Amino acid sequence: MDIQRIIDAITAEMTAAQHRGKAADYIPALARVDPAQFGIAVVMADGRVFTAGDARTCFSIQSISKVFALSMALGKVGADLWTRVGREPSGSAFNSVVQLEHEGGIPRNPFINAGAIVVSDVVLGGGEPRETIGDILRFLRYLADDDEVQIDQEVASSEAETGFRNIALANYMKSFGNMHNVESALKVYFHQCALSMTCLQLAMAGRYLVHDGKHPGTGRQVVTAIRARRINALMLTCGHYDGSGEFAFRVGIPGKSGVGGGIIAIVPGEASIAVWSPGLNDRGNSLLGSLALERLSEATGWSVFNPP
Ligand code: GLN
């Protein structure tokens, strides 16, 4: 299979696309990103790397960070995490507040904002935000095998300045007893959202989810094999918020989107993929990123519903 030829063709189609969606504009750093960009990186299970388009341009990974934070939280408290956050698709927007009232302050899943803020509270574990943020950054550098991964401080401050909805979610969950340290957990959450990475770095970082939880560079388990499977299951069912069903239907691969226009997608045993295009669809997921992954799964046959 000629992966390079496939992704070159996809990149040509996406670069020429007329309908590109609308980039997030709730903070200046995202509003000024050139919407004409598109990048894709594919890291194969055997280590081969393929890139096309703007695969080496940094972007704000935003909610994609929730996958890595979840992996850290599971390492920290194991299955106890599931007493504080559920595993069901929400069917509502990423920042929705309504369901919390009916379900005792327990968010539906770790990928909507409420769930991710609880996960940040768990990763923090009563510690210092500065140290936890450092731990998250080091974790991503280790996974990506790249010490250049950075946190964009401007994005982190803007997230805090405009994060009224997230602040409300955290306080609301606190009222149900499901948050320990609202302020520190939010600080962690805003910084993890501000991780700035390229498609190539992200696809490298996702490798452990291709290899049953094992970092292929060091041979060490990042998460246990069963947890890797479960994280992939959650990405498939919840990774695109109220667009998760549509993504599973069209692409059939576990994926997690971010409002910066990135998507990480995992084909267990085959490949770790990252795509990026800033324009979003009406569910807040990258419009061309989703389309590119649909094209890639068509061209390669990659799907968790298509046994090799
Ligand atoms: N920083 C964004 C927020 O919390 C992340 C949302 C997203 O990427 N979907 O609102």
Automatic annotation (TrEMBL):
Keyword Hydrolase in record: yes
Q: Name one GO molecular function term.
A: glutaminase activity
Give the highest taxon in the source lineage. Bacteria
Report any one BP term from Gene Ontology: L-glutamine catabolic process
- Keyword annotations: Acetylation, Hydrolase
Q: What is its EC number?
A: 3.5.1.2
Annotated substrate binding sites:
63, 113, 159, 166, 189, 241, 259
| Nucleotide-binding listed as a keyword | no
Catalytic function, reaction form: L-glutamine + H2O = L-glutamate + NH4(+)
> Which PANTHER family does the entry mention?
GLUTAMINASE
Write down the HAMAP family for this protein, in alphabetical order.
Glutaminase
For this chain, the family text in UniProt reads: Belongs to the glutaminase family.
Quaternary arrangement and interactors, per the entry?
A: Homotetramer.
Name listed for the protein in its UniProt record: Glutaminase
Organism lineage: Bacteria, Pseudomonadati, Pseudomonadota, Alphaproteobacteria, Sphingomonadales
In the UniProt record, the gene name given for this protein reads glsA
